[in-house]
Amino acid sequence: MPDENNVQTSAVSQTSNHEGKYLTFALGKEDYGIEILKVREIIGMMSITHVPQVPNYIKGVINLRGKVIPIINLRAKFNMDEIEHTAETCIIVVDIDGILIGLLIDKVNDVLNINGESIEPPPQFGSTIDTDFILGIGKVSENMKILLNINKVLKEDVAVAVDIANK
User: Which pTM was predicted?
Assistant: First the structure.
């Protein structure tokens, strides 16, 4: 049986590896963060061209300065209810191993520097629920930010993005 202190020390050292700057954003009442080095740019809403026969959370594509970029609605990806777009709705363009993907989100909050001591390990819900896409839970003042491993959130979408961009 593993020593509880060793497991706790391991979890702390893993989360301290995730300290750094995060772009934080909202989906509904929840706040999330993405490592700032993954973010290419933030753009306002623009016309999205629908692409048939893709998963329902892929809203379509945009033409950004001559590049075709697939747009993923994170609300739909996370099984959240759709809402009307507002003036704060925007697209975060992220770079996943050289592939640009747009994330449709409710609103951008801040860029925060979160130190390792303020990051808790991802919650464990048992073996049936996968939380690998969560780097940790950042505690900022009285608020919690779900820090996403965006590579794992989008792992199955990268191949679809490449297919869409090459059509």
Answer: 0.84
Place of tokens 């860029």: 111
Residue 96: closest CA among 39, 27, 15:
39
Distances (CA, A) of 71 to 12, 14, 92, 108, 125: 34, 31, 9, 16, 30
The C-alpha angle 48, 96, 43, rounded to 5 degrees, equals: 40
Ramachandran class of 102: left when φ > 0, alpha when ψ lies in -120 to 50, beta otherwise: beta
Q: Which domains does the chain have, with CATH numbers?
A: 4-165 (2.40.50.180)
Dihedrals phi, psi of 126, to nearest 5 degrees: 95, 180
pLDDT digits (tens, 9 = 90+) for 64-115: 999 999 999 999 999 999 899 999 999 999 999 899 999 999 999 999 999 9
Cα–Cα separations (whole angstroms), residue 103 to 31, 80, 111: 14, 14, 17
Mean pLDDT of 142-160: 88
| pLDDT at residue 11 tops 60 | no
Cβ proximity of 101 and 94 under 8 Å: yes
Least Cα distance to 60 among 43, 46, 72, 75 occurs for: 72
